[in-house]
Amino acid sequence: MGYILLGHGGHYPQDITPPEMECVAIPRGTTIQYYSEAGQSLAYGSYELDRWDSLRAPWPPLDSSCVTLNMELQGAAEYWDEDLENHPALGGHQLIRPGVDDVPDPFIMCDGTPLTCPTRPDQVLVEGMDHQCDGILGRLRGELFWLACATLFGVDQAVVQAALGSGPAGVVLGEDPDWVPGEAEHRAIDETNRAALADAVDLGMLEYVVGGTVLLIGHGHSAAFEHYALGDPGSVRGRLLVYEGGGVLGTGGLVFYDVPAGWGRLVRAAAARCSDKTIRLARD
User: Fold this and answer.
1) Does residue 57 surpass a pLDDT of 70?
2) Interatomic CA distance for residues 214 and 212, integer angstroms
3) Could you give the CA distance from residue 59 to residue 41 in angstroms, rounded to a whole number?
4) pTM over cut 0.90
5) Residue 205, Cβ neighbours under 10 Å: how many?
6) How far apart are CA 134 and CA 103, in angstroms?
7) Each residue's pLDDT tens digit, 191-246
8) What is the DSSP string of 116-127?
9) What's the rounded Cα separation, in Å, for the pair 196 and 199?
10) Which DSSP category does 78 fall into?
């Protein structure tokens, strides 16, 4: 089931505290489909909902490989007396209207802080961070359909910071940026990494590449993943030692060589998803 967000929307930087939360990351399992261009006024009543199936989305849905402006949804009382709650055009999705039932007015995408909520995709995809707030992204999970205006105040354009480490620095909201792996791609990468580690011999050496938001261990990865990782100017190729456990060695270990300081956290987190062995960086 998804959620249809209906009301008056906009982006008001002066209302967002702290300012670091102007753009926020999208959690795993959630997508946001905007139906209004950045800066466009848009509002839907029952007549427009009759054309739900033919609505044109200006961009594909944004997922957890993206971030979104911290948009604000306000009540639109002029529509609330219409028969919207069980409208057949809603397709079984739940209607969310600020000020109706227990929905706050305004209802902001994220009302948290950098300590409680992610602002970068790598925090979601690599570190597993989630929104711990009472905003839209903290309370709702699944498909979000934004049927409201996307009016901007105080900004020239709806700029979305991709913030993928040394990867693509920024894209315009809704624009198709240089491709970056999403949730499904990260699962595929983890599966190939897991297989490479399972096939490794005791005291065997494997190659790895780290770049963008991914760690690629061994061979057999999609060419698109390798192109993405190596396209990062800060990407690193290195060697990985695998040793088996038993006795005092416990479950065994993985020793990564040639890992610069800035990549240690990503390497550790990605490797831990694929192996229960002790993980060490050679400089440790």
Assistant:
1) no
2) 6
3) 16
4) no
5) 12
6) 10
7) 999 999 999 988 889 999 998 889 999 988 877 788 778 878 888 999 999 988 65
8) TS--SHHHHHTT
9) 5
10) G
